[in-house]
């Protein structure tokens, strides 16, 4: 083989080798390009996962908000009951003396007409108006239990006084003044009991008042 022919064959072989290398390079580049959509799909899946997590958070927040609203309802169900006011009470009195008793008794009724339940505790203030001036009743000392007076219901207490058996005119009673517990406004009533008290030289008042509930219905 001549030198020129050998050179031609070598050149041809080099060209074929180069062409093969270029094809391999293109295939390698094409493979890389094919992998890119796969990475995009993975990224898209990741994005979808993030959206799902956000949805779960939104749902949890919504549930939390609803629970907060439910927990907040009914917060006023245990509101405190207010005390009975004089203007809400219908105050009346009647003679409840039992024949043969050593003392007279007047039963005072407090009826709740205020349109709501209210609370009462302790003793009412009681004063007798007489021709000799005002006479305040003393408490009997009985234990006073707090109570709730339902709308439309009544509670009674007793006013006790000595009966005038002296044969004299005594101290003439002209009226009864009642002040409900913890109130300053009073109600003036006609006195339904005996017309007079015996004259007493002793200290203090001979008239006594019991706590709320110390008398039954009308006596």
UniProtKB/TrEMBL annotation:
> Which residue ranges does the record annotate as region Disordered?
27-84, 187-219
Coiled-coil spans in chain: none
Q: Does the keyword Cell membrane apply?
A: no
| Keywords on record | Signal
Residue ranges occupied by any DUF4232 domain in the UniProt entry: 84-212
* Keyword Phosphoprotein attached: no
PROSITE patterns in UniProt: PROKAR_LIPOPROTEIN
Q: Which InterPro entries match?
A: DUF4232
- UniProt lists compositionally biased (Low complexity) regions at 33-54
Q: Which organism is it from?
A: Streptomyces noursei (Streptomyces albulus)
Q: Where is the composition biased (Basic and acidic residues)?
A: 55-65
Q: Where is the composition biased (Polar residues)?
A: 66-78
Recorded protein name is DUF4232 domain-containing protein
Instruction: Give the highest taxon in the source lineage.
Output: Bacteria
Give the signal peptide, or none: 1-24
């Amino acid at each position: 083989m001549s030198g020129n022919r050998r050179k031609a064959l070598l050149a041809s072989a080099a060209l074929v080798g180069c062409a093969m290398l270029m094809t391999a390079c293109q295939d390698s580049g094409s493979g890389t390009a094919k992998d890119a959509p796969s990475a995009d799909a993975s990224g898209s899946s990741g994005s979808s996962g993030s959206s799902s997590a956000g949805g779960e958070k939104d749902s949890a927040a919504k549930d939390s908000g609803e629970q907060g609203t439910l927990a907040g309802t009914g917060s006023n169900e245990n509101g405190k009951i207010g005390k009975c006011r004089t203007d809400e009470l219908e105050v009346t009195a009647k003679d409840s003396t039992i024949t043969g008793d050593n003392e007279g008794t007047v039963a005072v009724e407090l009826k709740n007409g205020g349109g709501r339940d209210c609370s009462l505790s302790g003793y009412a203030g009681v004063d007798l108006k007489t021709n000799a001036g005002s006479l305040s009743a003393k408490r009997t000392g009985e234990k006073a239990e707090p109570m709730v007076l339902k709308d439309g219901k009544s509670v009674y207490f007793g006013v006790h006084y000595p009966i005038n058996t002296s044969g004299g005119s005594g101290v003439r009673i002209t009226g009864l003044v009642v002040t409900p517990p913890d109130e300053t406004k009073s109600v003036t009533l006609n006195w339904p009991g005996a017309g007079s008290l015996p004259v007493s030289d002793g200290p203090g008042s001979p008239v006594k008042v019991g706590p709320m509930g110390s008398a039954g219905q009308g006596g």
